[in-house]
Amino acid sequence: MEFPERLRAAGTKLVSNPVSDPVLRRVQVKNKAGLHARPATMIAMKAKEFDCEVELILASVPEDHHLEAGTRADAKNSIELISLGAPCGTDIDIEATGAGAAEAVAALADMFESRFGLES
What we know:
The protein is an alpha+beta fold. The protein is 25% helix and 22% strand.
């Protein structure tokens, strides 16, 4: 039986990668149209460049929003991101765990800060 790379024997002893602490950063949706299809696709494409798990979490939502704060979406899935329905002004936490987590969070945060290059 072949063991996955992370559980491969080192000598006669099995080792595994320790679970890393999540990297977390809060950003705000600054696009007038909110988190719609184009930025969601851009996020998913960028997130897929990293091996880590990345999620976006609604940190604050307008009073009349259809979802609650704490709702999570896989950042590598544009449909899940669109379903967050995050309007302009929504606070979102970017959370990543695993190899490259800090780099992934920084890259996605930069995209939010630049308004995805869609608005000046």
